[in-house]
Amino acid sequence: MKIALCVKQVPDTSDIKWTENNTMQREGVESILNPYDVYAVEAALKLKKTYGAEITVFTMGPMQAEDILKNIIALGVDNGVLISDRKFAGADTFATGKTVSAAIKKILPDFDIILCGQFAIDGDTAQTGPCIASLLNIPQVTYVKKINEYSDGTITATRLLDDGIESVKVKAPALLCILKSEFEPSRALINGIIKAQDTKITTLTLEDLGLNPEDVGIKGSPTYVSKAFRPEVKHTGEKHDCLETGTGAEIILNKIKEIGVLG
Predict the structure, then answer these.
(1) How close are the terminal C-alpha atoms of the chain, in Å?
(2) pLDDT for the residue numbered 183
């Protein structure tokens, strides 16, 4: 079994900066592994432990993203691929999907499963995984809570829906988007850390992928951010010391009347 694991580095929420095109600045900004991708990593490692899978992790971003790939390899992932070129900057989910799918076709064309986190906390669109599946013309399963079994080329998984849970079967090759789970994420051991330091990360540029510069990055993005801003925080609450006076209920009733809820 061969697994393509797609992860994303996201800006630390306390250190978000914007470019002149209203896209998030990623180069030179402190970043973390997208929290939902942590569970996609765990799903891949469980498949490796059970079925002897080979895992190749892919990410698109600036050169500093190599550190995140090394951290994931230290957990037990086999190979790392960094998709990095200034022409990829500012990509929306469609342009990102096009770039990542091209990288998977080049490096791991005979993959069995692609794993992604369901959401990315810097966009929360849940579109990149489905874009990759669509561009590779393979089936997809979203909102996956657990991968139950892989047998004879068929994946059995449990999905979490608004109105309950659903058990599904899908033929490989397929893409699965993973939700947060209850288990504790793995920690790297010393042997894994040593392996990660010795593992060479494959870097792919626009030229390596053979893509048209007009089809990637901000030029290849059909959507754009028209405005980016931090919402103004307004504190309009009032504090009343009414424990001794016993007037709390009366104060609340009067406030409700002021806003027109009660006549």
Answers:
(1) 68
(2) 72
Contact 23, 163 (CB under 8 A): no
CA 5 – CA 125 distance, rounded (Å): 19
- In 3D space, the residue among 138, 182, 176 whose CA is nearest the CA of residue 159 turns out to be 176
Pick from 200, 42, 24, 47: nearest CA to 113: 47
Tokens of 39: 């569970």
Coil vs helix vs strand at 244? coil
Radius of gyration of the chain (CA): 23
Q: How far apart are CA 214 and CA 210, in angstroms?
A: 12
Residue 20, pLDDT score: 58
Give the model confidence (pLDDT) of 207-221 as tens digits.
Answer: 999 999 898 888 888
Q: Does the global pTM surpass 0.70?
A: yes
The count of C-alpha atoms lying within 13 angstroms of the C-alpha of 37, restricted to the half-sphere facing its C-beta, is 25
Alpha-carbon distance of 145 to 19, in angstroms, equals: 35
Please state the φ and ψ torsions of residue 187, each to the nearest 5 degrees.
-120, 145
Question: Averaging pLDDT over each range in 14-18, 194-198, 256-260, which range is the top one?
Answer: 194-198
The strand pair at 54-60 and 164-171 is best described as unpaired
What are 23-40's pLDDT values in tens digits? 555 555 677 888 889 999
Name the 3-class secondary structure at 103: helix
CB-based burial of residue 129 (10 Å sphere; 0-12 exposed, 13-18 middle, 19+ buried)?
buried
Q: Are 217 and 87 in contact (CB under 8 A)?
A: yes
